[in-house]
Design brief:
Layout: E1 4-9, H1 13-24, E2 29-35, H2 38-48, E3 52-55, H3 64-74, E4 80-84, H4 89-98, E5 102-105, H5 110-121, H6 129-136, H7 145-155, H8 160-167, H9 171-185, H10 190-199
Helix pairs in contact: 2-3, 4-6, 6-7, 7-9, 8-9
Length: about 210
């Protein structure tokens, strides 16, 4: 199986060592570079063209948000995983809107980080349930928190069965929420809901 080439952009040396330790034991993953600031990270991306970037948001010189935006502008196919201490809904929203495909906090287990890397490498978004819940806080006020979570899942292309698994609710309940979301947004189907969410700038998709 082809290795997943990963670039780490993290300003704390010990944090980079810890990430290296987590990833080094997996033959499928190769850390091809490390950067301690955003400008260096962007330069290394240009040189190395990694499959995945694991990125902190708090960086010297330029922020992680700016790194995401600049990489995605120059390299639309860049696949970026945020690994941050920031937990607020605004941070998650900005990162996802700028183009991050996954958002994890630094207390995430090594297993979940590896799972996120594999999913993002396959072109899938990876937002744990807690991140979905916080991101839902940024959705339209007329949607309930659960409906907002369902809308986020819809924009990720998830089926009713997959949404039920993601949110740990019954598939019948998902159908009810999907119907409510479509009705409140004034659209006929999931595609229109996704387009409207994009037009409103609620979420960014590849």
């Amino acid at each position: 199986m082809k290795q997943i080439r990963v670039l780490l952009i993290e300003d704390h040396f010990l944090a980079r060592v810890a990430l290296q330790s987590v990833l080094a034991g997996h033959a499928q993953i190769e850390v091809v570079g490390e950067a301690g600031d955003g400008e260096t990270g962007i330069a290394m991306y240009r040189q190395l063209h990694p499959d995945i970037v694991v990125l902190d948001l708090r960086l010297p010189q330029i922020s992680g948000f700016d790194v995401i935006s600049r990489l995605r502008t120059e390299f639309p196919g860049a696949r970026i995983i945020v690994l941050s201490n920031y937990r607020g809904s605004e941070d998650i929203y900005r990162a996802v809107r700028n183009g991050a495909m996954a958002y994890l906090t630094k207390d995430t287990s090594g297993e979940e980080l590896l799972n996120a890397i594999r999913n993002v490498h396959c072109g899938l978004r990876y937002l744990p349930h807690t991140m979905l819940h916080r991101l839902a806080e940024r959705m339209p006020a007329d949607l309930t928190p659960r409906e907002s979570e369902v809308l986020i899942c819809i924009t990720r292309g998830r089926s009713n069965r997959e949404i039920a698994d993601d949110l740990r609710i019954a598939e019948k309940t998902v159908r009810i929420h999907v119907s409510a979301v479509l009705g409140k947004m004034g659209v006929r189907d999931r595609t229109q809901a996704t387009i409207l969410a994009l037009q409103r700038g609620l979420i960014h998709l590849d």
